[in-house]
Amino acid sequence: MKTIKSKQDFELVFSRGKRINNSLLRIRVARRDEGDTGRVAFVAPKRLGNAVYRNRCKRVLREAARACDMPRDGYDVILFSTAGTHDSSPELVAAALQKMLAKAGI
């Protein structure tokens, strides 16, 4: 799975991307050039809790992304965990992610 790592790429997704919210997660989606492979990033802000809590949230997001065949070609996607992510199963988060991606037109 190819990930977004640089600060410049994050800023590019934030400036050009579309934001979609849900109680289980939030996403930011930006279109890339045609033919580019898609990338994905997983974010758990410090306000959620300690490192163990945030790592669990990111594991749930990664598993949900795998279930939804992420990353999609031609798109950069940033997945943000919320307070509801930690207590949810990856299958439930994957279902929410699938709906959000459809809403974004992916």
Summarize the structure.
Helices cover 44% and strands 22% of the residues.
Give an overview in words:
- This protein is an alpha+beta fold.
- It has one domain: Ribosomal Protein S5, domain 2 (2-Layer Sandwich).
- Helices cover 44% and strands 22% of the residues.
- The protein contains four helices and four strands; from the N terminus they run αβββαβαα.
- The protein has helices at 7-16, 51-67, 83-87, 90-104; strands at residues 18-21, 25-31, 39-43, 75-81.
- A four-stranded mixed sheet has the order 1-2-4-3, sandwiched between helices.
- Helix 2 (51-67) links the parallel strand 3 and strand 4 (75-81).
- Helix 2 (51-67) packs across helix 4 (90-104).
- The longest helix has 17 residues, at 51-67.
- The model has no long low-confidence stretch (mean pLDDT 92).
- GO terms for molecular function: ribonuclease P activity.
- InterPro entries: Ribosomal_Su5_D2-typ_SF, Ribsml_uS5_D2-typ_fold_subgr, RNase_P.
- Its EC number is 3.1.26.5.
What gross morphology would you assign?
Answer: globular
Second CATH tier, the architecture: 2-Layer Sandwich
Number of strands: 4
Q: What structural class do the secondary elements suggest?
A: alpha+beta
**Which percent range fits the helix content?**
40-55%
CATH fold assignment: Ribosomal Protein S5, domain 2
Straight-line N-to-C gap:
17 Å
Helix tally? Answer: 4
Q: How many distinct folded domains?
A: 1
Strand content: 15-25%
Oligomeric organization of the protein chains: single chain
Q: What is the CATH first-level class name?
A: Alpha Beta
> Main beta sheet, described?
4 strands, mixed
Order of helices and strands: HEEEHEHH
CA radius of gyration is 13 Å
